[in-house]
């Protein structure tokens, strides 16, 4: 805390020089982007693409540091503790910034420990059913579940995953019951769905796209606000009859709380330009991600909305056990 106060005072003192601001000079040295997961995953891919673009834009080295562990909480806590000087950033997500607060006790950071910069991308989930289940739409699935209360089950890649949260929200909004079956990853869960061991799932589109296209799984709807360009024939959950149902996992860049507003805006402008780049957009879309962009206030509002949704859901669902 002493270090943070010292840096804050130093930053404030520079602003006393007429016509000069901290943001005018920033950055003058290496920027670190912390990815709280191992290399190779979606968060890491987005972090490295963001680092490459910032390095070209600012002309300083931008280094990706993978700090995995405890479902992203170790790396996320490291950024929360960092000096709010713009030189340490987080490649965050709804899971690391929001959901983990309803899974783990006594985290070393809070939701407001970060100043969000921009929403980089979202990756919609898709509702899928096992072969042979006699339904053809979300509404038919709801009717079937109400006619057979508690008889169906649904899988997820793990407790408190976006898949688990999405399915629990579906059950709550639709007023239906089903047993949750957690797996260790999407691959074994999707294999059991194809084999008929579980009845339905709501999982990330990138994990299941090829199986859906091959006709091995039947998809009913996507969970994003808009239709996915990867499966444009599928309705959204809202179009399928569940008003206000939106659960699209997102990835954002964030800085430690107290970072200069001018630095946040400078980063935001550059990263919005990145998301307009055709090469970047094609890369994101190849991984099933939809580029988003927007202002810092928009991602802050999204974080608040998601927090309220998951807090309400966690009062009825135990995300720490099956």
From TrEMBL:
UniProt-recorded name of the protein: ABC transporter substrate-binding protein
InterPro entries according to UniProt: BUG (IPR005064), Bug_dom1 (IPR042100)
Highest taxon of source: Bacteria
Pfam families referenced in this protein's UniProt entry, alphabetically: TctC
Protein family (similarity comment): Belongs to the UPF0065 (bug) family.
